[in-house]
Amino acid sequence: MAIQSPVHYFSFAATNDLTGKQFYLVDCDAATSTSSITNVITPTAAGQKVLGVLQNKPAAGQEAQVMLLGISKVVAGAAVAAGDLVMSDNQGRAVTATPAGAFPATNFIVGRALNAAAAAGALISVVLQFNGKE
Question: Are residues 55 and 101 in the same domain?
Answer without folding.
Answer: no
